[in-house]
Amino acid sequence: MPLTMVEHNGLDIMCPNKYSNSSSSSSSSEQDKKIFSKLKISLSEDYPKKNAEFLSGQYGTNLLLIGAALMLAIANKNPSVKEEDLRSFTTCLMILQLLWMMWYILVRDRQKSVPPEKDVHATSGWIRGGLTLLALLSLIMDAFRIGQYVGFQPCVSAVLVVYPVIHATHTMAQVHFLWFHIKDVIKSFETFERFGVIHAVFTNILLWCSGVMSEAEHFLNNHKRRLSALGLINLTTEYSEPQCNCTTSTCSMFATSLYYLYPFNIEYHIFVSVLLFVMWRNIGRTIDLTSNHKRQVAKNRGLILGPLVGLLALASSIGILVVYVTHVEKSIQMRRSAVSMFYIYAIVMLTVMCCAGASGLLIYRVNHMPLDTSKNPSRQLDTEVLFGSSIGSWFMSWCSIVSVLSTGSNPPYRWTNLVYSLFIVLEKYVQNLFIIESLYRQQEDRERQDPELPAAPEVFSVTSSLAPPYNGIINRTFESPDRSCVSTESEQEESEQVYGCPRKHSDVPAPVGNETVERPNIKRQILKNIAVFLIMCNISLWILSAFGCRPQYDNGLEEETYGFSIWSTVLNFAIPLNLFYRMHAVASLFEVFSRV
Does the N-terminal or the C-terminal CB of the chain have fewer CB atoms within 10 Å? Predict the structure, then answer.
């Protein structure tokens, strides 16, 4: 029989314990149960946190690959895969996203007593306003699609008529979701919500890819038609028009107008996917309250030169676009002069943009402000997207450089093409550095840390000329010799009532109302003008490329080096990324403007 030693007041007593075996076996079984329960709890808790993001990412990627497979089959004119199949697939995806958004809004409506956390850096009012404008243009495009397909109703599938209706509903619901819920940090139903948000992300990416394919096909057909009209090449042009006559007189107008609205629809979907991706990254995130606050907007003083030069660049770009589009379809000589004109204009604009960005970088280097290392998924995504979307135009530029250096022909724009390609690489490099530097710089306090502004008085300062009247009880201990009152900073922000204590006259200008008189900060004014100028220049370059000013198709040098099919494939990859880069740079520069 086992013995148990028991200690009583310093004495060790040996006593028999017949329950020792049973107690040890029961304790071991209890330990096993505790280990199993802990393992079960850890699996149930850590599984969604660690693997739901990975699983939902795989789900979204496979959705995109299914759509890409359908688009490749349609691009190859495979009769077994038609446009209706792709439209049916994207329609189902949009309906699923609509159901998820309805579920999310209903759940949030029932949880009004517990409002979700908000990430104030996820987006801003002007970004949502810009997306609303793009959504309105997308709705107009859907109306044109409906009008076109109604005219061809006898010979088109019902899917082509249902698709624009669902797309318009999807657009309106998505804009509502962006305005009221895109900043939410989801903490409930995290696994399910991850799949819902990533489904919305890849649905918009797939719609972007579909729009890019349609727009590229239309531009390529126009390019073939121009080359055939000039006698430079003999290619058949394939248009995907219904095989019947239109029953209305507006079908041709709708078909022509659609392709002028495609760039806006394309940018809408890719921007929405970026915002939704930020929301997906924020699921389950713990918000740092110290950095999660809105920044005060500074007054835009001295904002003259940047907007004026930017508007001049925008107006000039529109003029260049009109001249280019009208001249490129005429004789070979007019075509070459149009291409040369574009290259010279673009070189001048890119040179000024490089100088502006370098000036901004120089100001940051002189200022010596530390970097902001706080966690910000939106800012991190901005950096990654800027770099990723730059790859398209960089690849296109290096292909052009290789072509110029290796070709045997010598058109008048050969070396301007080389200089233009080099400046494209340099301009994106400098602009990316300027944007990233601006987004990651800690913002100085305008009232205290700016060396060009007058410093605020110390807490117990006896400089009565800068001290406003004292609020509340007067502490005579901190009274100046001439018995003027002194107040602390926190007391200045309290009630606006004034109690006793006259104020000493001084030469410092008195504040007007609740605003203090600040001296203008020259560095801040220069940075704001640079940001506005770069915004207008990026908009100008986006307009040129989006609406038909693409000399990469028309100069003939790259086609001579790489062949028509390979070079067309490169352009179909690079130009959409370049367009997205310009619009994303505009959004990032708006953020830079608001931070300066």
Answer: N
Contact call for residues 581 and 386 (beta carbons, < 8 A): yes
Q: Whose CA is closest to 83, among 139, 152, 174?
A: 152
Distances (CA, A) of 532 to 52, 76, 166: 41, 44, 38
The model's pTM is 0.77
Tell me how crowded residue 423 is: count the other CB atoms within 10 A of its CB: 20
Instruction: Count the Cβ atoms, other than its own, within 10 Å of residue 21.
Output: 10
In degrees, rounded to 5, the angle at the alpha carbon of residue 129 between the alpha carbons of residues 269 and 314 is 85
Q: How far apart are CA 251 and CA 255, in angstroms?
A: 6
Crossing angle of helices 251-281 and 125-151, rounded to 10°: 140
**Range picked from 173-182, 227-236, 301-310, 366-375 for highest mean pLDDT:** 173-182
CA atoms of 103 and 115, how far apart (whole Å): 16
Using an 8 Å Cβ cutoff, are 6 and 13 in contact? Answer: yes
User: What's the mean per-residue pLDDT of the chain?
Assistant: 79
Other C-beta atoms lying within 10 Å of the C-beta of residue 291: 12
DSSP letters for 544-575: HHHTT--HHHHS-HHHHHH-HHHHHHHHHHHH
pLDDT, mean of residues 325-329: 88
Per the rule left: phi > 0, alpha: psi between -120 and 50, beta: everything else, 80 is alpha
Q: Is 238 helix (H, G, I), strand (E, B) or coil?
A: coil
Whether pLDDT at 445 is above 60: no
Using CA atoms, how far apart are residues 329 and 338, in angstroms rounded to an integer? Answer: 10
Q: Which token pair is 360? A: 């901004």
Environment class of 44 (CB within 10 Å of its CB; exposed 0-12, middle 13-18, buried 19+): exposed
